[in-house]
Amino acid sequence: TKLDPSLTKADALAGSVAGKPGTLPPLLNELTLEIHLLERVVGSEKELKVEPIKRKEMLMLNVGTGKTIGIVKNPGKHCELSLKLSVCANKGDRVAISRRIGARWRLIGYGIIE
């Protein structure tokens, strides 16, 4: 590629998506997800049940190679979130959803972009 190596120094582009103009999915500042919660929290020493998502809750979303914080606007089976950082994604892409439990982010489910 003709990408300047100084741009990639210290993983500066980690989580970014690069492509020719007009070939990338749109940038999204808000997402509507079809939510699928797990029965139990992944990675916790205790067996914790996953509680339903609440309004104004902050969730970590992993979309493709990027990650961002989403703030819940409308909870439910079809959840609307406002994103702190824009993501580049298509309809139908899967998103990993994590919740802050203690001092760590724990996987609680996944969503499908609508």
Detail the topology: elements first, then pairings:
Layout: E1 27-37, E2 58-63, E3 66-74, E4 78-88, E5 94-101, E6 104-113
Antiparallel strand pairs: 1-4, 1-6, 2-3, 2-5, 3-4, 5-6
Describe the structure.
This protein is mostly beta strands and 114 residues long. It has a single domain (31-113), classed as Translation factors (Elongation Factor Tu (Ef-tu), domain 3, Beta Barrel), CATH 2.40.30.10. Helices cover 0% and strands 48% of the residues. The protein is built from no helices and six strands. It has strands spanning 27-37, 58-63, 66-74, 78-88, 94-101, 104-113. A six-stranded antiparallel barrel has the order 1-4-3-2-5-6. The protein is globular and about 50 Å long. The termini are far apart. The model has no long low-confidence stretch (mean pLDDT 90).
Summarize the structure.
This protein is mainly beta and 114 residues long. Helix content is 0%, strand content 48%. It has a six-stranded antiparallel β-barrel with strand order 1-4-3-2-5-6.
Domains (count): 1
Q: Provide the residue-averaged pLDDT.
A: 90
Q: How is the main sheet built? A: 6 strands, antiparallel, barrel
**Proportion of residues in helical segments:** under 10%
Looking at this structure, what is the CATH superfamily?
Answer: Translation factors
**Rough outline:** globular
What's the CATH topology label?
Elongation Factor Tu (Ef-tu), domain 3
Ranges with pLDDT <50 over ≥5 residues? none
Total number of β-strand segments?
Answer: 6
Structural class: mainly beta
Under the CATH scheme, the architecture is: Beta Barrel
User: For this structure, what is the CATH class?
Assistant: Mainly Beta
Number of helical segments with 4 or more residues? 0
Estimated radius of gyration: 16 Å
- For the termini, the CA-CA separation is 34 Å
Give the SSE string. EEEEEE
**Going across the major beta sheet, what is the strand order?**
1-4-3-2-5-6
**Which percent band covers the strand fraction?**
over 45%
